[in-house]
């Protein structure tokens, strides 16, 4: 879709030149009155790119003149002044410049698309975590998203990124601690080491993606951050002034330094802030990890003991 700059209302007829029986069509005309004699006259209109500088008389044809810079006429006309070139609106850029025969053509600037319902350019939608871009946004169309295909995931919000394949734990010589979903990668564990990790350590890997995917309200994220810091007797002044990027960054900082014991308390903290569904989902993830750690790493440890005997 091409957006044209706004024109002042002018009523005049559009007639295109064509050949009929090998001869051009007559120049379009209009009816006027001779200012001296008062007689009715049939006068020629002026072609696109010009305007009527002087009306015709009984002895003189219409006098047309080229449009000055910064003005235009697109149609055959008999107006006394060319139209001023338009100016592109908010969040628009010039696609083609104004000429004597055509107004400038505008389109939405990069990252925006034209919404006819509102007659304005809106920012392209972003695909949430668990989704990828099916059709990238253009000046005329919004972004189209779709759920990540099986075996892939996206853990960020983006208007450009596609989903990534899950890690293959077996190919890397590791065991699967938690199967990947559309919003987080698979979590792998190594049961061959001398000491096995606490299941909460593996849960830590998906927590940044978890808080992005839950789409929690800003107010709730602030409550969660306050409780996380209070649990470790850390200062939490200034949290009321933080918004989504800063809140997620502060939560991720807590996640990276928290002990396994503190991470295990996270579902309970979410419940205290009223995020019951999120707490239940996180607890289920932790239980699955714990089950796989106990089953796979416990089995490997038993086998190692038997071999050593």
Please write the string of helix (H) and strand (E) elements.
EEEEEEEEEEEEEEEEEEEHHHHHHH
Beta-strand portion reads: 15-25%
Biggest β-sheet description: 3 strands, antiparallel
Q: How helix-rich are the residues, as a percent range?
A: 25-40%
List the uncertain runs: 1-20, 301-309
Mean pLDDT: 87
The computed structural class is alpha+beta
> How far is the N terminus from the C terminus?
77 Å
Number of helices: 7
- DSSP E strands, number: 19
Q: What is the approximate shape?
A: elongated
InterPro entries: Death_3_fish, TNFR/NGFR_Cys_rich_reg, TNFRSF_decoy_receptor
Signal peptide: 1-22
TNFR-Cys repeats: 66-106
Disulfide bonds: 67-82, 85-98, 88-106
Features:
single chain; 309 residues; alpha+beta; 3-stranded antiparallel β-sheet; two-stranded antiparallel sheet; 7 helices; 28% helix; 21% strand; disordered N terminus; disordered C terminus; TNFR/NGFR_Cys_rich_reg; receptor; TNFRSF_decoy_receptor; disulfide bond
